[in-house]
């Protein structure tokens, strides 16, 4: 027995390290992707420069978008690897590997070793995992913490002898999730738990066996100190903006144009869970056939379905929609998929041939559509993109090989071929497709040009009619702000003794030069095509001429000047 447990732990640790290598694989090869990554990265730079990791700020103002926990994770990576893509993203790669490890460990008792290991593998190789666990955003932490909170509750519910420990893990995980992304970290997991108990007609269990007298103090001890500290330091402005703008406001009205139809998350979830989501209809169909026994005899699948369904339904009602918002619904679906796969492997539940043929045909057609879109349709919109016809090949080949293997009843080999296809696709994205696309983001090159010219000497930044947060991150220094001009007449108010680096569309360079006073010289340092705006962007250096130097004060170090 001890040898079996030791063997399982070795497998779990091996998958943890492999998942970490997979998510960290090429993570620092590309510059930060606008909008979110450089905003959080620049906010961290501001906090480090101010020697204050309590109050998030961005561009000389409060940054109420997210609480502090993810900043602390990124800060740890930066301390280890530097203020760059590697340092900022490595924490997310570690969190992704921890998610895989936790799923394996937590599910062993609920479902057995093979399903636990398979759940971890499905999670690691899904399409959206390749994206989310390589990004410097708060989402990876929330995914891990919500998964710990809900699976720990389920384990405590099923096994009374470990209830106290598991329920306390639930409270602690919800507290940390609240430190990472706000009230959603405890409201949605709490709602899922309450709905589960209501359907089981066991709601009194919440206050009789819920460990509320110790769990709530534990939750508050972990969560409350930072919220109090940031409130006191900002006279409660940060807390007010965070609650009313970033939480209630996002749910009530779309922000940054992130809208979508009611079926948005049905499509995004299916695509994000590829290649494994092609079997979800069959899994859900099998569960539907057992619906009469769910409430009393199928506690675990009922909890998993409630988890996924409630999370997706909640954000379907939200006005702001992004694929990342429902990643927390993926783990229970991966668990149900792993259980279905294991039944097939054990030949206790053989799927119908036509259903498998439909699933693999769907994956093949998705791969074909990706190749057609990347090779012929996308170039019409963005001719600067590299040829990417190969992007769909891994799914097409994986679908063909898996179908041939299943025809010969080689079930594990068929699932393995899909996993290999997913890994190959990730390799294509990271090492073949993204590097040339990364070259179409000039912000890092512009920042390097400014650093080479200025060294340690002071300078200022401004933008006209174009801005991406990555420009401020790469071009700025510490907590340096950037001035966004609302009219070219404002140029006179931002010019001073120190050089000004202004970024604008190339079509506006002549207009900018015409607005500059005669005692200043303009030099176009760089012009490059930019992927987000689909136009050429120029970096201008505006300097005081030598014979007039010292005749004008520096507006960013002297008293502020009112804009015209």
UniProtKB/TrEMBL annotation:
Check the record and name the InterPro entries matching this protein.
Answer: LipidA_mod_glycosyltrf_83, RgtA/B/C-like
> Which residue numbers delimit the Glycosyltransferase RgtA/B/C/D-like domain?
65-226
Source organism of this protein record: Acidithiobacillus sulfurivorans
Query: What keyword terms does UniProt attach to this protein?
Result: Cell membrane, Glycosyltransferase, Membrane, Transferase, Transmembrane, Transmembrane helix
Determine if Zinc is one of this entry's keywords: no
Please give the Pfam families that the UniProt record associates with this protein: PMT_2
Q: Which residues belong to the signal peptide in this entry?
A: none
The UniProt transmembrane annotation reads: 86-107, 114-135, 141-159, 171-199, 211-230, 262-279, 299-318, 325-341, 353-378, 385-407, 413-434
Its predominant location is: membrane
Indicate how the chain sits in the lipid bilayer. Multi-pass membrane protein
Where does the UniProt annotation locate this protein? Cell membrane
Q: What is this protein called?
A: Glycosyltransferase family 39 protein
């Amino acid at each position: 027995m001890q040898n079996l447990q030791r063997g399982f732990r070795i497998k779990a640790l091996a998958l943890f390290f492999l998942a970490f290598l997979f998510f960290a694989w090429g993570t620092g090869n590309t510059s930060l992707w606008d909008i979110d990554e450089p905003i959080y990265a620049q906010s961290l730079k501001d906090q480090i420069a101010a020697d204050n990791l309590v109050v998030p700020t961005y561009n000389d103002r409060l940054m109420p978008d997210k609480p502090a926990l993810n900043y602390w994770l990124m800060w740890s990576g930066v301390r280890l690897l530097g203020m760059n893509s590697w340092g900022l993203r490595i924490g997310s790669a570690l969190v992704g590997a921890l998610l895989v490890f936790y799923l394996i460990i937590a599910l062993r008792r609920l479902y057995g070793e093979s399903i636990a290991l398979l759940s971890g593998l499905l999670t690691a190789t899904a399409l959206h995992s390749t994206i989310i666990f390589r990004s410097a955003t708060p989402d990876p932490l929330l995914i891990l913490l919500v998964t710990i909170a809900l699976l720990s509750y389920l384990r405590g519910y099923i096994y009374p002898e470990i209830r106290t420990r598991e329920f306390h893990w639930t409270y602690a995980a919800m507290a940390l999730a609240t430190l990472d992304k706000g009230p959603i970290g405890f409201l949605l997991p709490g709602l899922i738990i309450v709905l589960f108990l209501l359907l089981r007609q066991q709601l009194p269990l919440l206050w009789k066996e819920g460990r509320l007298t110790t769990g709530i103090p534990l939750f508050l001890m972990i969560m409350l100190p930072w919220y109090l500290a940031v409130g006191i330091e900002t006279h409660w402005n940060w807390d007010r903006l965070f609650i009313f703008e970033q939480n209630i406001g996002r749910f009530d009205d779309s922000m940054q144009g992130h809208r979508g139809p009611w079926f948005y998350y049905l499509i995004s979830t299916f695509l994000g869970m590829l290649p494994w989501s092609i079997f979800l209809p069959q899994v859900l169909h099998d569960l539907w056939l057992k619906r009469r026994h769910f409430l009393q005899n199928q506690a675990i699948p009922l909890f998993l379905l409630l988890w996924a369904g409630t999370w997706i339904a909640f954000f379907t009602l939200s006005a702001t929609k992004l694929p990342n918002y429902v990643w927390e619904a993926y783990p229970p679906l991966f668990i149900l998929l792993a259980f279905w796969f294991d039944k097939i492997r054990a030949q206790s539940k053989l799927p119908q041939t036509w259903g498998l043929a439909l699933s693999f045909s769907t994956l093949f057609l998705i791969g074909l559509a990706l190749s057609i879109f990347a090779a012929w349709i996308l170039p019409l919109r963005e001719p600067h993109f590299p040829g990417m016809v190969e992007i769909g090949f891994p799914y097409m080949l994986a679908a063909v090989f898996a179908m041939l293997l299943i025809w010969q009843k080689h079930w594990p080999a068929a699932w393995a071929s899909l996993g290999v296809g997913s890994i190959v696709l990730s390799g294509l994205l990271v090492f073949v497709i993204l590097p040339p696309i990364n070259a179409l983001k000039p912000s890092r090159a512009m920042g390097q040009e400014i650093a080479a010219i200025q060294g340690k000497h002071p300078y200022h930044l401004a933008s006209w009619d174009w801005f991406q947060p990555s420009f401020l991150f790469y071009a700025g220094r510490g907590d340096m702000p950037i001035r966004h001009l609302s009219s070219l007449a404002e140029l006179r108010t931002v010019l001073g003794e120190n050089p000004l680096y202004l970024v604008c569309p190339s079509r506006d360079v002549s207009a900018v030069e015409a607005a500059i006073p005669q005692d200043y010289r303009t030099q176009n340092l760089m012009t490059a095509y930019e992927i987000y705006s689909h136009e050429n962007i120029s970096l201008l250096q505006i300097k005081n001429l030598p014979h007039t130097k010292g005749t004008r004060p520096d507006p960013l170090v002297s008293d502020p000047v009112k804009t015209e």
